[in-house]
């Protein structure tokens, strides 16, 4: 990790406005249009999110995720139930702002193909002075469809480096279902966005240390490590607010159009197998991403409380 001093926004409980004070992010107009366009639909979850993010260090990748999260709420609308996550999980932190976090979950409404939408925002300042910032948006579908889930995670371990995970997460074993590849990946053209990001000179493939995780990505997944070199924070910012923002919004729009409202006829055994596979992936995700990492970022009582809420969302357990 590259040591850096991160600049913080002043603490505030107010929602983040469409235009913020101070030096604007490069390329901000691209995201400001999206943020402002959906602001009229802002509800309780939006206000909670904006207030939490406003307390965290100012980072370009959080602006991208804000745009996606607000777009999700605007487009999914009544298909999402109000959040029931307690306040000590939608916002938590430690004295001095060295460890800050926010997790929110919204379940799908009855009759919807949405199972849940989870968003997570984490910041941890390390003893070395560097920081780790992790931002996730996950939308899982239920057994009324076999359409892919949506996943985006951004992991920033320094001011000029970023790991990007962006995928329509497949729910079928792809070699056994070539028609699934054609329907959700080939016909939608989303591989063009993976190709566009791969052509950025600072982008390299990211290899997960988990063999299981590597086996779960789709063939169009963006799984990359953006390394701009020490002192090149502005280069990373331009990449994030430029090609990355454009591709992420386009990939999410494809998912909203072709997957979020999909209903697929399946027999009982097929549906049961699909749901069991989803639960296996959920269990793995919670174990590898949250149960293993949150205790490294937060005090044990905080980590336990947050992981319990995530377990309840994904697995129906505490």
TrEMBL record:
Spell out the Basic residues composition-biased ranges. Answer: 1-11
Q: Which GO terms describe its molecular function?
A: red chlorophyll catabolite reductase activity
Where do the TM regions start and end?
none
Record GO biological process? chlorophyll catabolic process
Q: Where is this region: Disordered?
A: 1-21
Q: Which Pfam families match?
A: RCC_reductase (PF06405)
Q: Which domain of life is it from?
A: Eukaryota
Show the GO cellular component annotation of the record. Answer: chloroplast
Q: Which PANTHER family match?
A: OS10G0389300 PROTEIN, RED CHLOROPHYLL CATABOLITE REDUCTASE, CHLOROPLASTIC
| Protein name, entry field | Red chlorophyll catabolite reductase
